[in-house]
Amino acid sequence: MKFFVDTADLNEIKDLASTGLLDGVTTNPSLVAQSGAKSFIDLIGQICEVVPGPVSAEVAATDYATMLKEGQRLAKIAKNVAVKVPLTPDGLKVCKALSDDGTMVNVTLCFSPAQAILAAKAGATFISPFVGRLDDISTDGMQLIRDIVQIYRQYPLIKTEVLVASVRHPLHLVEAAKVGAHVATIPPKVIRQLYAHPLTDKGLAAFVADWAKTGQSILDAA
Ligand code: G3P
Fold first, then answer.
1. Which of the residues in the chain have pLDDT under 50?
2. What are the strands, taking DSSP E only, across 66-160?
3. CATH no. of 2-211
4. Residues identified as active-site
5. Is the pTM higher than 0.90?
6. Tens-digit pLDDT profile for residues 142-173
7. Residue of the CA atom closest to atom 9 of ligand 1
8. How far apart are the C-alpha atoms of 200 and 126, rounded to whole Å?
9. 3-class SS at 63?
10. Is 135 exposed, middle or buried (0-12, 13-18, 19+ CB in 10 A)?
11. CB of 166 closer than 6 A to ligand 1?
12. Is-contact 26 106, C-beta < 8 A?
């Protein structure tokens, strides 16, 4: 399973890239606004230099012609830009046009299996179903992932990858991995939570204490 980080904070991205576990980055207009970046184009360029995998950059317009121009501009920033478009009729038209030109496209704001089928037909590189936001309205977000993975598996010609978005906690990630989702985009805080287990901390403290009792040093050994 590929791990993308869901943030536009360049420092966070640099820090997490150093773990060696990061396969890509997703941003959205809300995350860019939070980052305080003065130039979206420059920010995406800098992120693309830090992470060689796909970096999602979302269009701002909602009409076909402007979204297409924005998508073409974003795609010029770097080879690893994945243009993010909303799951609307115009968004999917842009998806088809950009995909046909060889640009990676991430179709976002997916909340139903029917929408995911349309995105695959439009040639999306990634479909982004939002699990957390479905959970927020008392719907089983993870069921959407199960449905999309199952549907896509029926058609070996579908190359669209299921990119689990709106991940709120480690269990979302584990459940998504169990059903075989290709990618999860994870907020930095949740990535750090993935490492944590109290028994790891307790066990390590015991090993460190017991090792000290041996009086030995591995590096000083002959
Ligand atoms: O980037 C899209 C998605 O991951 C947003 O998550 O937490 O704002 O629902 P959230």
1. none
2. 81-86, 104-110, 126-129
3. 3.20.20.70
4. 84
5. yes
6. 999 999 999 999 999 999 999 999 999 999 99
7. 166
8. 35
9. coil
10. middle
11. yes
12. yes
